[in-house]
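Q: Sequence in, structure out?
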Amino acid sequence: MNIDENTKINLLYNFYQSLLTKKQNQYVDLYYVEDFSLSEIAEQLQVSRQAVMDNLHRSVSLLESFESELGLIKKTQEIDDIASKLENIVTTRYPDDKELSELVKRISKINEK
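A: Exactly. Output:
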């Protein structure tokens, strides 16, 4: 697994983990967050390696379908992009406008929660 794919799945997991079952959360957390191997997970959960792989594939597919339907990651990235551009405009063109600066800060903080 390359780093980009792992990062993508961790991001999906951060956004949508509450929509997974307890079992799905456990598998995804152990593999993608805790960096356990398939064998280590199989041993810990007393299942086969194949069961671990199957569960991970289903869980990742589910996370991807959540993003496809809800688009929270895409929307969050868009808010970040707009907030950054807006901040540049405000600091460049309206550096003395405190009210506008405060609004830009509030927009930027939306995704920090």
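The chain has two domains: 3-70, 73-112.
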